[in-house]
Amino acid sequence: MRDTEEMVDEVRNGVAIDGWRIVYVGMRYAFTARELFMRVAKELTGFLGSSVRSVILQFTSLSGLTEMERMLKQGNLFFEEALERYANFLTASGWGVTEVVESDFSKHEFVFRVHNSGFATWLRDNLGDVEKVFPFYDCGLLGYRLVGATTAILEEAGIKEPLSYEEIECLAKGGRYCEFHVKRDNDAAPIRRLEEEIPRPMFSYDEVKAASCGVNLSKRNPRSVIGHFLNALDVKERGVLKVGRDCVFFVPSLLHSIAYWMLPLEKFGDFIHNIYRRAINEYGRTLAKEGERYGSMGVTAFFLNSTSAMGWGGMEIEEFSDSKVSFKIYHSLLGEDVKAYSSWKGLRLQPSCHLIGYVVEGILNYFAEQEGDRFTAKEEKCVAAGDPLCKFVIEKE
After folding, report:
1. Model-level pTM?
2. Assigned CATH for 207-396
3. Is 32-204 assigned to CATH 3.30.1380.20?
């Protein structure tokens, strides 16, 4: 297998920076702290139960499908080469060292193995007996992406067959690695049908930008900020992508904005806010505890600066006092994605960047609760609501 550092360099060199946005293979991406991503995944899985597959996970197959379609268009690749390239991409994205164990195009059967999966190791290390906590669990987030990627290759060859996956071995459940068998399944839901819920234009960066483009009045240079972050990416362990001490994933923006946010919100209403708020507030408190010596302003500035560098939008503190904190977001990932999605589906336009606000709310409350006070976040402006930028105000109750 190729050296993981080489794979990371290949992805890094393929990244384009447009304002505060990170673009790769014609789609918007962002880096996310594994700890935050997994806390949200845990809460959603606990709330949705086994339906997490149909509500969220199956839609990641559209990402795999689109990613592979774009890779095939980039050059004349043999199908085996295309699968290897996709496996290398997942490795470089921090999901774990991914290898193609078997690819039988005559039978339409494929076997993938993921070593040291960042997703599975977190669950194993933080939940203990995963099967006891989530008896229905498997690593569907990766399984469905692999289904999408293999479907794209078969369609390129003129073959349209329903595929599904089975996770034969899972690191989160005590296995040596995560192994996925992708094969024909006549009972599988066709990937194309999923486009009825996530419109295909959502996977085109240019179309989303045209439908939702916000302003950039930032005083900072996004190329410098994001470029510095990209240069700091390092592989500390086998298949683990880090910046400093923090593990990160490289993720299509739609996984955050639509699959993790809008689809649950559409299906379950505003109640879902409570699920997110609990998980994300606790992440903010964890950041505050780790950086307590820097104070509330230092930790808040660190979070906003690092999140800007990871492609979520340019974030700048506007006001910071004992009773009120406000900050702006330019080119908000959540705001722009949700604006396009809501417009194309005819949904009511409303603020959508709560995930960012809840982290800052958690940071401030860690410090404020020592004095018996409490802060509450409100998004006063949002691109998704038709504003040119996003603005949060977090005030004492």
Report:
1. 0.94
2. 3.30.1380
3. yes
